[in-house]
Automatic annotation (TrEMBL):
Residues 53-323 form the GP-PDE domain. This is Glycerophosphodiester phosphodiesterase family protein. It comes from the Bacteria. Pfam families: GDPD. It comes from Bosea vestrisii. InterPro entries: GP_PDE_dom, PLC-like_Pdiesterase_TIM-brl.
Length: 328
């Protein structure tokens, strides 16, 4: 008899928890979406390449798709083009220089896409700015180099980006796990007016990002470790409609093939994260060790569950017009 009462009580609890999880996370009770997704342009408007088989050692400039526009990643012109196309946020990469500046370039070494050699952060800003950043781009295995000679002096500094876009949202990618880089970047960003600082976000290695969060508590940040903590805690608590502390003030870049594991996706989860001061952006699927691609094609956009909180794209010129049409 006692065992029957135990199982009856357990069944009642299970049903109650299931009802709670349903009402806290069902899209049926979510508010209707009234705004378009936030659009994040990865490296501005850049040359794209097939993402399959790409590793940290792959020279992506040597395998670009046939060019459809004249812009090179991480340049002022590419950022301006991305904003003009409809981007709300532009992402770019930074490396420290030997003379205490930050250069805007993705690669750890110069040999892939420039006419220079060696480690990027072992150069002065002047040495880096003298390089041709279009030197290594080819779409036909080296038969032609359509941007060679066109990228001389186009590598900007962080200061130049901040000066050119004082009223725009920017995402800074710290390309190391060195906490000293977080200190140096915090020193620079804390010199900005509060209104401009409020528009910035940063992501990268856990150690420099931890420093940035401590130095600039209002800054939205992301690292792989921080996002993992947030999503694991949310998996444990989100069924009850609770937002873990680990999810506060985070930039969450969610691969599109992971969204089915998130309680309340998309509308309820997005609302909770925004209430916690966080931004939710959907990237392309994470497959194996190749990393997560962007939402770059019409079919990628069509496959996403609505409402879409934000979109990470390498082709803002393609995606922004489709989003605008959707919202009409």
């Amino acid at each position: 008899m006692a065992m029957k009462r135990f199982w009856l009580a357990a069944g009642i609890v299970a049903v109650a928890l299931g009802i709670t999880a349903f009402f806290q996370n069902t899209a049926l009770l979510a508010p209707a979406a009234t705004e378009r997704p936030v659009l994040l342009a990865h490296r501005g408007l850049a040359q794209t390449y097939p993402s399959s088989g790409v590793t940290d050692a792959t020279c992506t400039a040597s395998r670009i798709n046939p060019p459809e526009h004249p812009y090179l990643e991480n340049t002022l012109a590419s950022m301006e083009a991305a904003f003009a196309a409809g981007a709300d946020i532009v992402e770019f990469d930074v490396h420290p220089t030997t003379d205490g500046q930050f250069a805007v370039i993705h690669d750890w070494t110069l040999d892939c896409r420039t006419n220079g050699t060696g480690v990027t952060r072992e150069k002065t800003l002047a040495e880096l700015k003298a390089l041709d950043i279009g030197h290594g781009y080819t779409a036909d295995g080296g038969k032609t180099y359509p941007f060679r000679g066109k990228g001389v002096a186009l590598m900007p500094s962080l200061d130049e980006v901040l000066a050119r876009f004082p009223d725009r949202r920017l995402l800074i990618n710290v390309k190391s796990n060195d906490p000293r880089e977080g200190e140096a970047l915090a020193d620079r960003l804390l010199k900005l007016p509060p209104a401009q600082l409020s528009l910035l976000m940063a992501y990268g290695g856990d150690r420099p990002i931890t420093v940035l969060r401590a130095r600039i508590p209002t800054l939205l940040t992301m690292s792989k470790e921080a996002e993992k903590r947030c999503l694991i805690h949310h998996l444990a608590l989100g069924w009850a409609g609770l937002t873990p502390e680990a999810c506060e003030r985070q930039l969450l870049l969610i691969p599109s093939n992971y969204t089915s594991w998130i309680w309340g996706w998309p509308a309820r989860f997005t609302a909770r994260m925004r209430a916690a001061g966080s931004e939710v952006i959907v990237a392309g699927p994470l497959v194996g060790g190749d990393g997560s691609a962007g939402i770059d094609r019409a079919e990628d956009l069509t496959a996403l569950a609505r409402p879409i909180p934000g979109i990470w794209t390498n082709r803002i010129d393609r995606i922004a017009p489709l989003v605008q049409v959707e919202r009409r």
